[in-house]
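User: Second chain of the day. Same drill as before.
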Amino acid sequence: MVLSFDGKNSRVNLLDLSACCLSSAIVAADQITALACTAAGNKQNARLKIDGSFVTDADMAAQQIIVNALHEISNEIRIVGEENEEETSRCKITGHEARLESIFRLSREEILIRYHGGKDIHAYDMFSLLPLAQDGAGLSKEEVSLSKEETESNSTRPHRMKEIEIDTNRVSIFIDPLDGTNSYAKGDYGPVSILVAIIIDQTPCFGVICKPFGSPGQFSVLDTGCMAAYGGTLLGAAYIAGAGKIRGRKTTSAAEDPLGGMKRDHKELPRAVISRSRSKGIVQNFVAFLGEKGIIHPEPLLVSGAGEKSLRIIMGSENEGLWFFPKGGTSLWDVAASDALLRATGGRLTDKYGNDMDYSRSKTEAENKYGVVACYDELLHADCIRLFSEGTWED
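Assistant: Same format as last time:
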């Protein structure tokens, strides 16, 4: 990449770094789709790791592309990837460099537009076609109106980070190069995603959830066929790459007072997303309890993949609102990107005790032993944590 550092610098530009996270995820998606199973049951060199989980050639290729791209920005940043560094380093992927450079430039331009609200961006009409937009997919009238409103109020946006050049020793990057590997190996591509997050001083500030095979009803990035959501407190918002802003949602008054609120129609209630394989015991019991209280929809949605669950509660296309899993089984790279996006959209992600995730932990200590509770709304999240702590739940 053109915007690279020589490894001696002790500072990094967060806008360049975020553009690198986004662009490398998009290019890594090319490898994931190219190496996809050609027929059901073809596991594409899938093999078991020591912990019993699957890994494929696509996992390794995707992580190598992302890590190498980040090293072009700085060699001093702490990177925590799911896959083994030694095995990943032996995965030699070439021929993507020119495409990565091109998409990096477009990603950087789009992120600058988001950050500056269109100001000082020359020879560009932000209300017609964003740099990463699919050909012919200009913003809708509603999105143009929202974008103009955002631009006019840009100078007073409270959550956008003002400190952009920072010391590299404050920065960590968490990477899950292929979330949903088990589904991928079986030819089920819906749950597959790439997760990348920037952590500053142990707090997520930027995240990318990239869907290599696309997401129903969402714009594709350029001609790639993939979809990407990105953003965080760095930008003060979350966006769909090449398209509009992700609007935060709020619970209604009944959720603010779950034990005394008026009963609402089930259609109005947020829905929990849980894995089919992990939907029994404590998960099933507590989600059913919330449903009986009229806090969430009584019927959860069965969804695979940490990235897919997170994207569902962030986007809310089917009114998804809660991911509740109060035990081990996920790791920091599964939740870091989601944490960053939820912080920018009014949501919250913690462990089952309501504590923020500790991103200072090493790769060998990265398991979320106390689970994950993620919600699209802070008030609903607080209710879930309180009610869970007040009860006695057996797995």
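DSSP finds eleven helices and 15 strands in the chain.

User: Great, on to the next one.
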